[in-house]
Design goal:
- Helix 5 (167-176) runs parallel beside helix 6 (190-201).
- The protein folds into 2 domains: 2-89, Elongation Factor Tu (Ef-tu), domain 3, CATH 2.40.30.10; 100-257, 3-Layer(aba) Sandwich (Rossmann fold).
- It has helices at 22-27, 68-74, 110-122, 142-147, 167-176, 190-201, 250-257, 261-279, and strands at 2-9, 14-20, 33-37, 45-53, 58-64, 81-82, 84-89, 100-106, 126-133, 151-156, 163-164, 183-187, 206-210, 226-229, 232-235, 242-244.
- The strands form 3 sheets. A 7-stranded antiparallel beta sheet has the order 6-1-2-5-4-3-7. The chain has a 7-stranded mixed beta sheet with strand order 11-10-9-8-12-13-16, with helices on both faces.
- Helix 3 (110-122) links the parallel strand 8 and strand 9 (126-133).
- The chain is α/β, with parallel strands linked by helices.
């Protein structure tokens, strides 16, 4: 049912998949995500809906091969089917004409911030975007982000593309210009989002981040995606995934996300051994 119509490699480990999901495509809004399961016995993982085409009845997902399940999805081909695709889930991004906003995407987090930037631009905002990656091979959606931004800055850790350094360096330069920035939207690795929050906290700039914690059912029942925001317990799947970055307990969230690292390593090792046996 959830057939992959198009598979587009974005880098050696990042792939865009256009998936048949007509009901989701009609209802999806910026900020929404889906829970996908590649096989009947597979793990459920959340993925942001990057684009949707209601006429074609498709949604576009971007996945980076990091763990066992993302590796399996990364290797799926056109014509393959997902066992489950559930959504749209989460609260959509509130979109208004705020004035001037900055959108920051780190790594595959650019896939999350792109639909936000696109909607904010369509609402009349001046959009300044920053996308960062480890190197030129892992920069994604540069053309797409440029099309919805009044200014675009690209940073890479090694300097192989754009500015050498982190996204916070570019954000700092923008803030030093004295622009009247209403909001900053940031998505990427947790340490990056924490750094952005720390950078904007003193200036009082409204800062919103989209969280992607451990998640299972996407309905708030399992409690796996709980996060402390402003001293209160929230669930990223139903209360988010977007929250006020200045209110998030990042230290607690980072520690919780490490809970299953050993199991993930074991699963990846088992997958490698399976591939070696099949190749042999």
């Amino acid at each position: 049912m959830y057939v992959i119509h198009r598979r587009t490699p974005l880098s050696s480990a990042i792939t865009a998949l256009e998936v048949e999901a007509p009901l989701i495509a009609r209802k999806r809004k910026p900020g929404n995500f889906v829970i996908v399961r590649p096989t009947a016995t597979g793990e459920r993982i959340p993925l942001t809906i990057v684009e949707s085409d209601s006429e074609r009845g498709t949604i576009t997902l971007i996945v980076q091969a990091i763990g066992k399940t993302t590796q399996l999805i990364h290797t799926m081909k056109e014509g393959d089917e997902f066992e489950d695709v559930v959504g749209p889930l989460g609260e959509p991004t509130p979109i208004e004409n705020y004035g001037k906003v900055v959108c920051v995407g780190g790594g595959v987090g650019t896939a999350v911030v792109y639909p936000m930037a696109k909607a904010l631009k369509a609402a009349g905002n001046k959009v300044i975007s920053i996308i960062g990656a480890q190197n030129s091979d892992t920069v994604i959606l540069e053309k797409e982000m440029s099309a919805v931004s009044d200014e675009l800055f690209v940073t890479t850790d090694d300097g192989s593309r754009g500015i050498k350094g982190f996204v916070t360096q570019a954000l700092g330069e923008i803030m030093e210009r004295g622009d009247d920035i209403h909001s900053v939207y940031a998505t990427g690795p947790l340490p990056m989002m924490r750094a952005v929050a720390n950078q904007t906290r003193g200036s009082g700039i409204r800062t919103v981040v989209s969280l992607n914690p451990i998640m299972m059912d996407g309905t708030g029942m399992c409690g796996a995606c709980r996060v402390t925001v402003g001293g209160k317990l929230k669930f990223a799947c139903v209360d988010g995934p977007e929250f006020d970055a200045h209110e998030i307990n990042f230290e607690e969230l980072i520690a919780r996300n490490k809970n299953y690292m050993n199991q993930e390593r074991e699963a990846m090792e088992t997958l490698k051994q399976e591939h070696q046996c099949q190749a042999g």
